[in-house]
Amino acid sequence: MPPLLKVILRRTLLGLLTLLLVSGVVFAATQALPSDTARAILGREATPERLAALREQLDLNRPAIVQYGSWLGGVATGDLGDSLVAKQPVTALISGRVKNSAALVLLAALISVPLALLLGSLSGLLRDRGFDTVVSLGSLTLAALPEFVVGILLILLLATQVFHIFPAVTLLDPESSILAQLKMLVLPSLTLVLAVAPYIVRTLRASMIEVLESDYIQMARLKGMSERTVLGRHALPNAIVPAIQVIALNLAWLAGGVVVVEYLFNYPGIGSALMDAVSNRDLPVIQAITLLIAGLYVIFNLVADILTILVSPRLRTGLQ
Fold first, then answer.
1. Residue 271 contacts by C-beta under 8 Å, 6 or more apart in sequence?
2. DSSP label at 284?
3. DSSP-assigned letters across all residues of 93-160
4. Quick one: which of 39, 182, 169 has its CA closest to 106?
5. What is the rounded distance in angstroms from the CA atom of residue 80 to the CA atom of residue 71?
6. Residues with Cβ < 8 Å from 192, sequence gap 6 or more?
7. Three-state DSSP class for 243?
8. How many whole angstroms separate alpha carbon 54 and alpha carbon 39?
9. Is the pTM of this model over 0.85?
């Protein structure tokens, strides 16, 4: 078996083990939520008889370990259960929300990653110059601001007080495609871009500076290689390795951090679905969305590990 395939298989197995542990934590946490699911559904005026009947119907009377085994078996077969509130399969309930959030995250990633890589590499090349100073101060300022503060500032600037270019609230038409409503996604996606790009910029800048001061870069220049060859073949491939891990973590953060941004802009994604599920104590929906976010973390980190090996000549050599 090729060494790279062995690494992928080992990381995949570790990822599955991580998801198993996360599923246990998620199930235990949802079971520990205050209040009673049956009472949350029927209301405070429900009689004890109706509450007991509903608990029996929803299998809430079974031991927690039995409920966990049943839920985990359903997850393994693609059955996430039925919503306790909407009375429909969880997959059907959140499928549209997942698509909306995926479109928002994808748009933010397509903008933030190339932009951050460009600014970070240029900032490292132009160390201590005017461009580097502006980029460093700007990225540090944005990194210090929570995403909801960035979103509020964008609303004040581009939707209400100063300019009226974009809508302050995202009202998507479910009958139309996302591509036909891109204007609605500008402010939420821009908020996510400004929230994650600074970390990638600063990581790549620091890595680029370290690589440019290394001995093998100096040796390449002494051999008479052109600056473009030195940067493209030696500096950037080695400098981008730490940035890949940061990109993976930030993309995974987008999947989870989108909850706050979606609530701020009233965006119909998994964030609003998760908040509604928590307020209604809809345990199957909470468990499904939380496990989905955890799965994205595992997938992004697995892809980042593989890309790190493929990009770094030293790691590729170590596998041979």
1. 101, 258, 259, 260, 261, 262, 263
2. H
3. HHHHHHHHHHHHHHHHHHHHHHHHHHHHHHHHHTTTSHHHHHHHHHHHHHHHS-HHHHHHHHHIIIII
4. 182
5. 7
6. 104, 105, 108, 112, 147, 254, 257, 258, 261
7. helix
8. 9
9. no
- Neighbouring CB atoms inside 10 A of 101's CB total 28
Q: Are 83 and 284 in contact (CB under 8 A)?
A: yes
CB burial readout 229-250, b (16+ within 10 A) else e: ebbeebbbebbbbbbbbbbbbb
User: Domain map of the chain by residue range?
Assistant: 93-319
Q: Residue 82 — φ and ψ, nearest 5°?
A: -110, 145
Q: What is the reported pLDDT for 231?
A: 74
Q: What is the pLDDT of residues 50-64, one digit of tens each?
A: 767 766 666 666 777
Task: Report d(CA 159, CA 220) in Å as an integer.
Answer: 51
Q: What is the pLDDT of residues 158-208, one digit of tens each?
A: 877 777 777 777 777 666 777 777 777 888 888 888 888 888 888 888 888
Lowest-confidence pick of 40-44, 101-105, 118-122, 314-318: 314-318
> Exposed, middle or buried: residue 269 (CB in 10 Å: 0-12, 13-18, 19+)?
buried
Q: What is the pLDDT of residues 124-153, one digit of tens each?
A: 888 888 888 998 898 888 888 888 888 888
pLDDT of residue 36: 60
Architecture of domain 93-319: Orthogonal Bundle (1.10)
For 87-138, the pLDDT digits (tens) are 788 888 888 888 888 888 888 888 888 898 888 888 888 888 888 899 889 8
